[in-house]
Amino acid sequence: MEEKTASVKDWSTVSVPSGGLFKPVEDARSWSNFDLPAERVKEFWENGYITNVPVLTPDQCDNILTVYQELVEKSNEFPGYELLYEHHSNQSGDPDNVLMHCLGHWRFNQLFHDLVFLPEIAVPSSKLLHPAEDKSVRLWHDQLFAKPPRHGGVVAWHQDYSYWTRTKPMMHLTVHIALDEQTLDNGALHYVPGSHKWRKNGEPLPITDLNFKDMESIQTVLTEEEKALFKPVPSLLKKGEASFHHPLMVHGSYGNRSECPRRACVVNYIADGVVSDSEDPLLQKTNPVPKGEKLNGQFYPLIYDPSWKQAN
Question: Which residue of 136, 158, 300, 309 pairs with 305 in a disulfide if CB–CB is 3.0 to 4.6 A?
């Protein structure tokens, strides 16, 4: 096991994009090319999400999918598997409803590594981490969700920050990137507009299903008013498009009963300055960040700083 890990480069030791997926930005003036239009920023803060933002070309998606599918098929035999924070070959446990879910793949592959630095997602995120100011962006962690044809499982309704309360304050953002076109038949991501304002006693909604398989379990913790407003909208992302959502946005996705796979990459960001609220490691196989100390360093690299637009 140790020899296998030692033979694979740990890309978390590289705190800048390598050029494997895209050409790194070299001219300070070019950073502004990735800004979100003001109306999209307004839409995000009103609804809790935005969708259909082009971020990858078809060729970039296909290059990533070559590695992605190899990981799905090889599972724990994939080179560098030991570097993952988590891996669930089927998180539901039901062979008729399969959901592959993993975290930490940016550590063992150059393309996945570079994806978390992609300016098409990092620069817009700067404006979506806080309603009043552009924020410097750090990586929290990445995820993969794969639903195979015909028997791909659901991802039950949830709020992301319910799983992340070991960090504070709540300045987090999720970017969901479709590597396959997402349709109603293959399990497209759905959002409940306005649900980013829903809390329980001032806290995020409780986790109701750790394995994501009980699609409607969240209904047990909603108020009657929230149930009346529970009207999901499909994102229907095209290949290479992304959606951005608030850490309290209620979202989920239904099963894949189509003849095509539904594979997505997720990048979760935090604002620079978010701190640990735990003495335990925040992610498996990482060093603990003492409670109250800022997340930075090898596992939480700085992805984008608005000041780079003014750099000499």
Answer: 136
